[in-house]
Structures are given as structure tokens and as C-alpha cells.
Design brief:
Elements lengths: L5 E4 L2 E3 L4 E3 L2 H9 L3 E4 L6 H10 L2 E4 L9 H16 L3 E5 L1 H9 L4 E2 L2 H4 L17 E5 L1 H7 L3 E4 L6 E2 L6 E6 L5 E6 L5 E4 L11 H12 L3
Parallel strand pairs: 1-4, 1-5, 5-6, 6-13
Antiparallel strand pairs: 2-3, 7-10, 8-9, 8-11, 11-12, 12-13
Helix pairs in contact: 2-3
The chain binds manganese (II) ion (MN).
The site of manganese (II) ion (MN) has 7 residues, from loops.
């Protein structure tokens, strides 16, 4: 019998408590797609990282602090991403995850959308977070997966990818031009979305499809 893939999830960081934590929705989304999520430790040696990369079939890069503002996470994610790419593991980035992958690959960010890229679209919506508030136009493999050329998504970001890093191609763009999903060419599966399918997968088949596609590519 085919075993369920193990998916390492980058931990969230509570700066006040100096403690890692996790939003269960990320783990639930992986479980709903047939994967086994494990939350990674914040600190690991390079040797530990090699064992962890070997053990995990895929990696989820979660949302959270701005890239560059949380040295603890930046260091861990640099180590995990470099080794996961070397080993061609499946990778899904969500929100900060997209931004982190882009910067790692040499891309740049809009540091603050409301001041640097004013638009009709509010990219930082209020609650409820599971309710879509803006459209994205789909292309490439994401469009093929969803079977549509546009999608309504939720949005909880004030940063975004500006120039894409090497080998990244956009798979979703908002009507104001902001890149909302990317794929890394030439890899088993490196996808990232700027929105939050983990808040929507329970009721939205398109959000679940993203988790299913990720977990399928983990083995
Ligand atoms: Mn958005």
C-alpha cells in the first residue's frame, strides 16, 4: 500500500513569547489531502537538516512575518529551502511562503502595497478570512488544475512579489497587476500562492485541489 507522504511545515514564530506555534488550518489542509503534517523545529544544524529533508516528502512554507523581519524564521527557511530544492522535494508556499521563495531565488518584493502600489483592491482584508474578496486571473498549470481562467481568493498580505526570482513564472495575477501565484520551472513541484487556501479548503473545492495536487507530487 502506498504510504501517506510526510510533509514538514515551517513553524510560526511568536516574538513576544519567544516560541514557535502553528495555525491548525495548515495541518488540516495537508491531512485533508492525504498527507501527514509535522511541524519543523526552529533550530537545526545542517546535519539535522539533511536527515529531516531525507525523512520528509514535501515542505509547506507558511505565512507570517515579513521576509527580513524575523531572523529566526529566515535562517531556518533558508536552510530548509536550499536543501529541499537540491533534493527536488515538493514545495508549497503560502503568503510569506511565496515571498520567501521569491527572495531566495533572487526576486524582489513590494515592501508595502498600500503605500507603494495603491490600487482599488484591498489586499489585506478583514475577517472572516475564509471569504474571498478579490479576483485573480489564472494561467499555466494552476489554470489547468482548477479548470478555470479566473478565481476569487482571500487576501491577507501587505507585501507581494515584484520582480520574480530565477525560474519562477506567474500562474495568477490580480486585476491590479499583483502576482498572486508562482511556479518554479524544471522542478517536481514548487508552487506558491499569495492567498490562503488553508482558510477555504473545507468548503471550496478549488482550495482543496491545491493541497491535493501538492500532496500528490510529494511521492
Ligand atoms: Mn491579494
Amino acid at each position: 500500500m502506498k504510504q501517506s507522504p510526510i510533509i514538514g511545515v515551517t513553524p510560526l514564530w511568536d516574538a513576544e513569547r519567544k516560541s514557535i506555534w502553528m495555525l491548525p488550518d495548515y495541518l488540516d489542509g495537508i491531512r485533508a489531502a492525504g498527507g501527514i503534517p509535522i511541524v519543523l523545529p526552529l533550530e537545526m544544524s545542517k546535519a539535522d537538516a539533511d536527515r529531516i529533508i531525507e525523512t520528509c516528502d514535501g515542505f509547506l512554507f507558511t505565512g507570517g512575518q515579513d521576509v527580513g523581519s524575523c531572523p529566526e524564521r529566515d535562517a531556518l527557511e533558508t536552510l530548509v529551502l536550499s536543501k529541499a530544492l537540491q533534493s527536488d522535494k515538493a514545495i508549497l508556499g503560502i503568503c510569506r511562503g511565496l515571498q520567501f521563495i521569491n527572495v531566495f531565488l533572487g526576486g524582489t518584493l513590494w515592501q508595502d502595497l498600500p503605500s507603494q502600489h495603491p490600487s482599488e483592491i484591498v489586499h489585506r482584508q478583514g475577517k472572516p478570512y475564509g471569504t474571498p474578496t478579490h479576483k485573480v486571473m489564472l494561467s499555466g498549470d494552476l489554470s489547468t488544475l482548477i479548470g478555470k481562467d479566473n478565481l476569487e481568493v482571500n487576501t491577507l498580505h501587505h507585501q507581494a512579489a515584484k520582480e520574480l526570482g530565477s525560474d519562477l513564472v506567474a500562474m495568477a495575477v490580480a486585476p491590479d497587476g499583483i502576482i498572486e501565484a508562482v511556479q518554479m520551472a524544471g522542478k517536481r513541484f514548487v508552487w506558491a500562492v499569495q492567498w490562503h487556501p488553508e482558510y477555504m479548503f473545507r468548503t471550496d473545492p478549488d482550495s482543496l485541489a491545491i493541497f491535493l495536487c501538492f500532496v500528490k507530487h510529494c511521492k
